[in-house]
Specification:
single chain
Length: 264
Amino acid sequence: MVVREEDPTEVGAGWLRCADVGNKRLWGQYEFLTCRGITAETQHHLTQIRKDLDRTMPGQEFFHAGGKQGRCALRRVLLAYAFRNPAVGYCQGMNYLLAKLLLELRDEEEAFWMLTVIVEDMVPGYFSLDMVEIQADMLALQALVAVALPEIAGHMGEAYFQIQSVATRWFLCLFVGCVPEPVVTALWTLFFKQGKQAAIVLFQFSLELVVHFSREIMLCTDPGSMARVFTDGAANLTEQDGLGLLESITNKAVSPQPHHQSRE
């Protein structure tokens, strides 16, 4: 087990307080789970975890370029979660969430319990095998864009572009690897402050991205070019623009009604 060498960052400490991890933590469970031997049931999860390690934050030295400690921490925590919750096991996207948590919390066990809170309480069902909840939220996002931005939604429809083709990854990774790191950090702070309504922040920020790239979207005539506007544009957001979009979220009251309707 990686021993904490530093306290969590100020941001990470704030996340821990907002998430109220103490109500989720079972003392001794993480250590117990990390000591369990590999079973046939978890072997396929371990195989996928190992494949995804190379794709996890390739620019972060903690996980690459000699960052063996970070890679081992990723593997241990993800496998421990697969043992804890066999109904979910390991799903792609969880590696990005955990990597961000490890960087900010600097402690494996804290990161494990925060991952548990995210997967089980803040976006429940996103990582289920049938992915029903994430699919429902993608339909809700599409409906929200149609209501809030009808002209843009109509143009997307004419180009046979569906927002879920890019937004599914946004939601599963909580935008890690999709927008610059400082923007992700600020977005996660808003996310954790919302508690069990945290997914609303994902809808709000997605809407802001659609508005931000509206001019480029309206110039596109095919789904491939629209997808590139979103993926390349989001990845290359300036920190100033990204933080500005987040600030606009705090100044607006976007109704979460479509999101909740999709789950009824």
